[in-house]
Specification:
By secondary structure, this protein is an alpha/beta fold. It has helices spanning about 10-15, 30-35, 55-70, 95-105, 115-130, 165-170, 175-180, 200-205, 225-230, 235-240, 280-295, 305-310, 340-350, 370-375, 395-400, 410-415, 430-440; strands spanning about 45-50, 75, 90, 95, 135-140, 155-160, 190, 210, 215-225, 250, 260-265, 265-270, 320-325, 330-335, 360, 385, 405-410, 425-430.
């Protein structure tokens, strides 16, 4: 008699039904389930990273710095680009697909949990089982009801306050600041960027008295990388010159810029591994977070060489990342709101690419399409729009209307096959779009 064939169900398949669930504010569900599993989140120290933009880069940099100091570190980020397992890492290693499938499967008796809540519980259980010393947790929506707020952090970090998720967080930056500030808890709350519009709300709603990042760390730009100093353009030559990053694909020209950093009594110079001057505040906040953990004895004191390794060793793909597809250089960035799109526009100018790069664009329906189009259209040449494979995708007719004269592609593969392959193409508007491109290019392999 033949032996039965084992059927393996992936975490993505197990999670799929939860994508349709309506998000209900509140932490009661997560608290209840964590308690049922023995409160795994209480077995390690946590850092909570909230903000509109830059959360992931800040979290990744902090985790890299901690790992370089020999601290066993968990990292939880969202969304993923290609595989859901990307969201959960220990010392830089992605969770094994079988382990995540098991953890998600064990939550089947709790159908009340949303997609994000399920992954959050799975991540916290994995970190406890892996005996991490510190978990760095990136908030999702980043408000008071975000599932990661089920933990009590030692340190909480706020990157910035921009306009995103307004349907959940409020119509103005002041409203959004109040929601995000409610997540600022723990022994230290450090804010990277605030202004007159949002500072009163942050101070009023933060549980821990917030301090400015400038009290903890400094980062200064020293010199552009060699590609900016030699702005001669040849698409193929340009891409071939770029050093491969740790996850495949290629680095953008601004990676390789030199920066000076000061934290505690340490001063150092480092090569910036992530592209874009907008990454400097994220690095400064990560350094501040590491200093705060050291101040409270959660991690050992910071040292020069581990700091340097942590800064230069970070990997955060899909953000001004060059990849190549069938001879075409692609610049990928998941910018999906006004502020992030402005940062991309600045980077194009810094690279000397204004008006010399094509655009492949898509976004979700709740994003500021008109504002993003107004920023990008004057800075690119040929535009192609494509609908995302998501029930939340903006209709392709609306995308086309936002970019008069744009070509409409049936799917991402068709978009990449069309046009002049010798010209570089900016791919932006959504991390989901970037993920679809990376699936085709293999830019996360290796």
């Amino acid at each position: 008699m033949p032996r039965p064939v084992a059927v393996t169900i992936s975490a993505a398949e197990l999670l799929a039904p939860r994508l349709e669930q309506r998000i209900i504010p509140g932490l009661e569900r997560v608290h209840r389930v964590l308690k049922a599993f023995g409160c795994p989140h209480e077995r390690f120290a946590s850092v909570l990273v909230v903000g509109t933009n830059g959360k992931g880069a800040t979290a990744a940099w902090l985790a890299s710095i901690l790992c370089a100091h020999g601290v066993r570190t968990g990292l939880y980020t969202s969304p993923h680009l290609v595989r859901v397992e990307e969201r959960i890492r220990v010392d830089g290693r992605t969770i094994d697909p079988a382990d995540l499938a098991r953890l998600v499967g064990e939550l089947a008796p709790h159908p009340e949990l949303s997609y994000f809540e399920t992954l959050t519980v799975a991540a916290l259980r994995h970190f406890a089982a892996s005996a991490v010393q510190v978990a760095v947790l990136e908030a999702g929506l980043g408000g008071r009801w975000d599932a990661v707020n089920a933990v009590t952090p030692i340190v909480s970090l706020l990157t910035n306050v921009g306009t995103d998720h307004q349907g959940w967080l409020g119509p103005t930056r002041a409203h959004i600041a109040a929601e995000k500030a409610a997540a600022l808890r723990g022994r230290e709350a450090i804010v990277a960027a605030w202004d007159a519009e949002v500072e009163p709300a942050i101070r009023a709603h933060a549980e821990a008295p917030p301090s400015s990042v400038s009290e903890w760390a400094q980062v200064a730009f020293l010199a552009h990388g060699p590609d900016l100093e030699t702005p001669s353009w040849g698409a193929r030559q340009f891409v071939d010159r770029e050093a491969p990053n740790l996850r495949g694909g290629r680095r953008a020209p601004l990676s390789g810029s030199r920066i000076a950093a000061a934290v505690e009594s340490i001063q150092l110079e480092a090569t910036l591994p992530l592209a874009g001057t907008h990454q400097l505040p994220n690095l400064r906040l990560a350094l501040a977070g590491a200093a705060a953990l050291a101040k409270h004895g959660v991690v050992p004191g910071l040292e020069h060489q581990p700091l340097l390794r942590g800064i230069e060793g970070v990997c955060w793909p899909g953000r001004l990342q060059w990849v190549e597809h069938e001879g075409r250089p692609l610049l990928l960035d998941g910018a999906h709101n006004r502020e992030a799109t402005l940062a991309v526009a600045t980077a194009l100018a810094e690279m000397g690419l204004g008006g010399r790069i094509d655009l492949l664009f898509s976004c979700l329906q709740d994003k500021p399409l008109a504002e993003m189009a107004a920023i990008l259209a004057p800075r690119v040449s040929r535009v192609t729009v494509v609908a995302l494979a998501s029930p939340r995708a903006a209709p392709v007719a609306e995308l086309a209307a936002a970019f008069p004269g744009a070509a409409v592609a049936a799917d991402v593969a068709a978009a990449l096959a069309a046009g002049d392959r010798s010209r570089p193409t900016l791919v932006t508007g959504s991390l989901y779009l970037v993920g679809e491109v990376l699936r085709l290019t293999g830019g996360l392999d290796g």
